[in-house]
Write a structure and sequence with these properties.
Blueprint: E1 7-12, E2 15-20, H1 31-46, E3 52-57, E4 61-64, H2 75-94, E5 100-104, E6 107-109, H3 111-118, E7 121-125, E8 129-131, H4 145-153, H5 155-164, E9 167-169, H6 170-176, E10 181-183, H7 188-200, H8 204-217, H9 222-237, H10 240-250
Parallel strand pairs: 2-3, 3-5, 4-6, 5-7, 6-8, 7-10
Antiparallel strand pairs: 1-2, 8-9
Length: 260
Amino acid sequence: MKGESLILTEVRDGIEIITLNRPKALNSLNSQIEDDLECAIDDALSNDDVKVIIITGSGRAFAAGKDIPEFVKKGGEGMAQISRRDHEIFSKIRKSTKPVIAAINGLALGGGLELAMSCHIRIASEKAILGQPEVSLGAIPGAGGTQLLPRIIGKGAALYYLLTGENIPAKEAHRLGLIDKLVPADMLMPTAIAVAKVISQKGPIAVKQILEIVNKGGELPLDEALRLEEEAWRVCGDSEDFNSAIKAFMEKKPVTFKGR
């Protein structure tokens, strides 16, 4: 029987904060916390009042990897099923039409880093430590790490960390582009909320189009990706938001977006 949720949720001014809440286990990702995370993501995506999502962790970890005891006696097919389930959940975050920000408060290792990489923006505390240590257990990252890390920091750097299993200090992760914004620990959530608030005040149709075409375009040849941009411009150009914003700009008045 499923126990109390391992996820905390809070909505503030159009921003949903989803907190992984298994601090004694460093928020390691067992099957329940992942199920709870999926439900929280689904609820946030279906809530019209939510414009931006922030994912963070309680205690001293964002998420310190998968829950290793769940791997015992799984065998090859069992591990493949775990990987498939991870992909299903994390792909909802990657493909979200609402921006998802990872507020990395501490350890983000293994599946925790893969969760963070599935988010659109990563803001981290200077005390954060990231890494994909699976090779030390004779395994590979199974929640997207082998594909996401090279796409974010480049093939050579990714292979170095995937093959050595070394941790990546926050400062180095920032230099590599794995972290988008690095802040003092006490400024992590204020910064994440401030960034989310800025995004939530932008044109919602444009925000959605940017997320969609960046996600899709990254997998296409440039000419095809630019056609996606053209179609997205058509959507924006036909929107009430764009045309009223242009009028307000010309008249030097505040812009108000209605999402249509």
